Amino acid sequence: MNHSAAEADRDVAVGLRGASIGYGDVPVVSGVDLVVRSGEAVAVLGSNGSGKTTLARGLLGLATVLDGEVGVLGAPVGRLRERGRVGYVPQRHTVSGAVPATVREVVGVGRLARLGLFRRLGAADRAAVAEAVAAVGLTDRIDDPVASLSGGQQRRVLVARALAAEPELLIMDEPTAGVDAASQEALAEVLARVSAAGTTLAVVTHELGPLAGVLHRAVVVDHGRISYDGPLAGGASLADPGGHHHPGEPAGPRPGYRLDHPRVTGGDRAPEGRR
Ligand SMILES: Nc1ncnc2c1ncn2[C@@H]1O[C@H](COP(=O)(O)OP(=O)(O)OP(=O)(O)O)[C@@H](O)[C@H]1O
Ligand SMILES: [Mg+2]
Predict the structure, then answer these.
(1) How far is the CA of 247 from the centre of ligand 1 (A)?
(2) Number of independent structural domains in the chain
């Protein structure tokens, strides 16, 4: 049997071949062939219920791979030994829980994922936590209970938690949902920085906003199948065919992202150029 691309090629961050992913024995996405190379920055687009979150969860072993192959950072999904190599911002946050935790503690958990169990945070780790909190603009709230933060601020805590681990692959499910414009800009700057440093990004989003300047490739999920995979410019229009826009937002392409001018990010990193 041939080795899968995911296992054979260390340059591949995410490799799916003929993959079906779902819950129980019911596939939600199927027939997915997708290769994301190390260092790429990919937007995952598509309408509600199309399967974006299921696809993302499949990469983390949180949804079931029912068929085909799914490889993440060179290992079949779920077999990756160092979990901290993959960062994840879930779509639906449940930061709170029973134990009151401060922003610093929650973000520190992200750092622990990188260290492994039974290790304590050292000075460098504490600095990384503080830096991640600063990156999402919550330094003044770092010792506050997360439960006392607003919804958008809590999403930013989850982003900081993922950043603090300094993962090789960062999967974010709607990181900007409910997040104000200034914080979206700040997040885009952080992601541009980690992307430039070589981190692979996969960002599920309905609103590209400032992220359009960071993500160069779009994968559109439609009824559980990938209907588009290519430069961001084409993907964004396909993902939003009816010109649908949210109330209170201007129709059409947002600032920093123009369909008629698909510069988006460095063309040298476009997927076609790397094959
Ligand atoms: N835990 C689950 N168990 C069973 N079915 C699920 C589960 N989570 C999602 N689904 C189903 O999978 C389909 C795709 O859901 P998914 O959350 O992947 O969509 P999505 O593209 O992320 O949508 P949205 O844009 O609203 O976040 C939906 O029909 C949903 O009902
Ligand atoms: Mg979703």
Answers:
(1) 24
(2) 1
